[in-house]
Structures are given as structure tokens and as C-alpha cells.
Amino acid sequence: MSALETTLTRERTIVVAGLVALTLLAWIYILQGAGMGMTALAMTKVALFPHLTPEPMADMAMPTISWITIVAMWWVMMIAMMIPSTAPLILLYGRVLRHAAAQNQTTTRFIPTAFLLAGYLLVWLAFSVAAAALQCALQRAGLISQMMLWSQSALLSAAVLGIAGIYQFSPLKRVCLVQCRGPAQFLAQHMRQGMLGALRMGIEHGAWCVGCCWILMVLLFVGGVMNLVWIALLAVLVLIEKLAPRGAIAGYSVGTLLIAWSVATLLV
What pLDDT, in 10s, does the model give residues 25-84? Predict the structure, then answer.
């Protein structure tokens, strides 16, 4: 057996290593500031009510950030946060392809898996474009700070927190979460052949994932788009909701907390 053939028999290990490497590279880019002119650590501060918190170094001139850089920042952040929760689907799909190869039904395994991931990330790229546009609009309106990228408006904070809390209990959230929590069920319902089929499957799964998590990502406008504490907490919440046995119950608990937080924001 040649070295190439040996490598191809270990595709599961290679796929896992690739997903881990991509996730780590994304987190490293975030830690370095993702082109925002400051490190993420400098833009991280725990504040329950950011609109009441003085902005550190408020007089410091911030560099002009291009819209493309903001889109890239959001997309890399989504990659860092979302790949761990979609890894079970990617690995299960690879297993299905290995089984098909063993039955001589297909000879390609790596490429369709890559197309599945590409389709998934394309959907989050579309979300990142929308998020970047919203960030620019909020900054121009003075509703989020130029440096810390967190809310400067009690009404904005309360609205986002309240909508996020209510959405946790919505039928649409439940439908999307079912698709995200069941990779075997998803593949059984949406399985398609070939590279374009894998790309379409990735897009479909990405759409369900965005439907499940979009408002959680919008919460970053409250606590700080580049706030490492918020990014980490949201990434953990996404993992729990999708992978933990009682993830849906955890989501309801978070929804209740967010609604209470929204009310408190209006009262302080």
C-alpha cells in the first residue's frame, strides 16, 4: 500500500485534525483582534449593563475599519463558534461515505465532505455580511461604541435581550434545533449524491443552524462584538443546545434569564 493510500484510509483522523486546526486558527485570529485595531483582550470587559459602563480610553482615536474587514471578522468568529457544534454531522457524513466506498458505490470521500463544510460556511458568510451591515449602521447611529463595540443604548440592549429570550421559546427555534440536534435524521432526510449534492446539504444544514442561533449572535451587540467572555459563553451555549442530552432545557433556562435581564436593563 502506497503512502497516499495509507493516508486515505485514515480520512476520519484527517478530517478531525482539519476541523480542529480550522477552529484553532479562527480563535487565534479573534484573539489578535480580527483586524479591529485592538486585541480581543483589550475589548473584553464584563458588564451586565454596558450602556452604563464608561468606555476605557474613550478619547483614543480608532482606526478606520473597512467593511470587508468587518465581514471577515464576523465570518471567522462564526467559524470559531460553530464548527465544533457541526462536527458530528461532518464526521457522520464521512462515515456514510466510507460505508458507501466499502460497498463500491463511490470512490470519493474527502471532496464531498469538504463541499458539505463549504456549503455550511457559505451560509454563515451570508449571515456575516448582514451582521457587518448591521454593525456599521448601529455605529453610525451611535447605538454601539466605536471602540468596545457594545451597546450604548438601554433600549437597544433591552430589545435584543428580550427578543433573544422570547425566541428561545418560539416554535421556529424548536424546529431548527431539532434539525441541528439530529445529524443522522438530517442525513436520512436530505442525503444527496456528489459534490454539488454535498454542497446543497451543507447549505441546508447551515440555514437550519442560522435559524437556530442567529439571535444569539446578535447578543454580541449588547456585550461587545469582540468581547471574549461573550463569545466564549455563546459558543458553549450553542454546544450545549445542540449536543447535550438536555440541551433544549438549557436553552429555555437561558431564555428566561435573558427576558429577566431585558427587564432589569430598562429599570436600572
Answer: 999 999 999 988 888 998 998 889 998 888 776 556 566 889 999 999 999 999 999 999
State the alpha helices, DSSP H only, in 105-246.
110-140, 154-167, 171-181, 183-190, 194-218, 220-223, 228-243
- Per-residue pLDDT at 246: 85
Phi, psi of 91 (to 5 degrees): -70, -40
Domain ranges of the chain: 3-53+65-267
Is the overall model pTM greater than 0.70, yes or no?
yes
What CA–CA distance (Å, rounded) separates 75 from 150? 18
Q: Is 137 left (phi over 0), alpha (psi -120 to 50) or beta?
A: alpha
Please give the grid coordinates belonging to residue 8: 486515505
Q: Is 113 exposed, middle or buried (0-12, 13-18, 19+ CB in 10 A)?
A: buried
